[in-house]
Specification:
two-stranded antiparallel ribbon; alpha+beta; single chain
């Protein structure tokens, strides 16, 4: 027989070690799985499998009896253990697969991922006696990792929708809003200071749960966002969220991760060839507790390094900060490996300001939210990202192939530097042309640039604010193009507009339309003293900085 193939005797010894029983009975059961099943209880068999999954870092799980089978959840997986019985009574609500009437029937395990899917990304089965519980656990974990890889790759052609803040592209449903009125963003930007609304935590929690429970290709960072909230927004967050959701008469349940973030969070890990050695023994993903323990086992000094770093930065240390930072670092490191045509999400370092502080009671961050925001920033930039990715934000490498991501029809290898620059310039020029209404056949879109006019301020007394001559008209348009292109580079297409030009760069280019100009004057002139920067025949290469206006 082949050199590395196990004999029946070797398999029997492994089964005996895992399940107990007489060696000869186990050996006989290999040839007759039904006989092997007769010596096992379904609940004990499922518990042993779950214990082996927990050894791989999976969240601990209990199970319950449902319609003649034992049912359990662990991470993104739903597991069912039952008997292969052709008896309608065996499917009753109170039926027990270990009932003596069916105890001799073959024992099977069914696994589906994600556990709320109608059609799973992973569906696999196992039978008692054919594999040891440990072999089943290892195989299920490996198949889960492969299913995740396939789904992430399949999602890449759909990554065409830009995040409203950073501009990186995702499948549209992978971007979530922090409240109903807000723009959808990626997990790296959810707490960014450019968010225009405070987070509605019950609303956000339901969005995160639905995405993670129904799509196994969801960005890894969303689980870390949930973990940070559950760790820092007070005890029993899940129960408080459910009370509020019931009061709103909305979806009344949230997942256990909101009450038990350390034990019940599921953080995807990179493929084995791309992960840090600290996580070599863990599976496709792991609980936050298992990830934290693995990192500290790999380097027993790392927690003290973190504490010292916070002390030097004058950030108050709190126990929850450490696993929260680890969850963020590992999840976004996973995204960096999985989404290899996109920018590494190390810009989350600059997106931990203000957003957490703006969450209102009764779901606000306990204590000083600035300590959480500042602590995450320090630990990610100077300790955890350098450890897991080799660099932080400030020493991020220039990687042109990660600038953009794939187009829907792009199945080419990773772009070269020249390809990335050309595609960036072409796409930016197209977006600017659309916003400024310069494409033939497309309706004039200058209203997109100028923003909405206030109905009560129609500009009629002014008559017109159109440039006084052709030179000024050309200057205004050149200024709009220049500023729009800069805004596109800084923050993506969603930030291209007169309001953003003023808020981000201090540049004001008056509208040609009187109604819009009146609104601009109301909003802009009230914040700074303006002056004239040019006359009818003046040639100016670029608009001036804050406090200047081209008229």
């Amino acid at each position: 027989m082949p050199k590395n193939q196990s004999t029946a005797a070797q398999k029997a010894r492994r089964l005996q070690a895992a399940n107990g029983g007489a060696y000869t009975d186990v050996l006989h059961g290999l040839a007759n799985p039904a006989a092997a099943s007769a010596t096992l209880r379904a609940d004990a068999w499922l518990k042993t499998i779950l214990n082996h999954l927990q050894e791989l870092g999976w969240p601990a799980s209990s199970f319950a009896l449902e319609e003649g089978r034992y049912h359990a959840y662990s991470g993104p997986v739903s597991l069912d253990a039952g008997r292969d019985v052709d008896d309608v009574d065996a499917e009753a609500d109170d039926a027990d697969p270990d009932d003596p009437r069916w105890a001799g029937a073959p024992l099977w395990l069914s696994v589906i991922v994600p556990f709320e899917a109608g059609i799973g990304d992973l569906e696999t089965v196992a039978r008692a006696g054919a594999e040891t519980p440990k072999e089943i656990a290892v195989r299920v974990d490996a198949e889960l990792a492969e299913a995740r890889r396939r789904r992430v790759q399949a999602a890449e052609p759909k990554s065409t929708t830009p995040c409203a803040i950073c501009g990186d592209r995702y499948p549209e449903h992978h971007l979530l809003a922090i409240r109903a009125q807000a723009d959808p963003v990626c997990p790296a930007c959810v707490w960014d200071g450019d968010q225009r609304y405070r987070a509605d935590l019950p609303y956000l929690a339901v969005q995160i749960d639905q995405l993670l429970n129904q799509d196994s290709s969801a960005p890894a960072g969303w689980a870390a966002v949930a973990a940070v909230l559950a760790l820092t927004c007070g005890a029993n967050l899940g129960r408080r969220l459910e009370r509020e959701l019931k009061r709103r008469r909305g979806w009344p349940l949230v997942m256990p991760r909101w009450d038990q973030p350390l034990d019940q969070s599921w953080i995807w890990l990179p493929p084995r060839e791309g992960r840090h050695p600290a996580f070599a023994r863990l599976g496709a993903g792991a609980s936050l507790a298992a990830i934290t323990e693995a990192l500290e086992r790999h380097d027993p000094t790392v927690r003290e390094q973190a504490r010292r770093l916070c002390q030097e930065a004058q950030v108050r240390w709190r126990p929850a900060l450490w696993p929260a930072a680890i969850g963020y670092a590992v999840a976004f490191a996973t995204q960096a490996v999985e989404r290899d045509r996109h920018r590494k999400p190390v810009h989350v370092v600059e997106s931990t300001s203000d957003g957490l502080s703006q969450i209102r009671a009764p779901f606000a961050v306990t204590g000083e939210a600035s300590n959480v925001e500042g602590g995450l920033k320090e630990l990610l930039e100077y300790l955890l990202f350098p450890l897991l990715l080799g660099h932080g934000l400030r020493d991020e490498l220039y990687e042109p192939h990660r600038i953009y991501g794939a187009e829907p029809t792009d199945d080419r290898p990773t772009r070269a530097q020249s390809d990335a620059r050309i595609m960036h310039e072409v796409d930016r020029a197209t977006q600017v042309a659309v916003v400024l209404g310069q494409i033939p056949g497309v309706p004039d879109a200058k209203v997109i640039w100028d923003g909405s006019a206030r109905p009560a301020q129609d500009g009629a007394p002014l008559g017109t604010t159109y440039p006084v001559n052709e030179n000024i008209d050309e200057l205004r348009q050149a200024a709009r193009i220049q500023v729009a292109a800069q805004l596109y580079d800084e923050a993506g297409p969603a930030a291209m507009g007169a309001d953003e030009a003023w808020a981000r760069a201090g540049w004001w280019i008056p509208s040609d339309d009187a109604a819009h100009a009146v609104r601009q004057a109301h909003d802009f002139l009230g914040t700074s003293r303006m002056s004239t920067c040019c006359g009818p025949a003046t040639a100016v290469a670029s608009p001036r900085r804050r406090g200047s206006v081209c008229r």
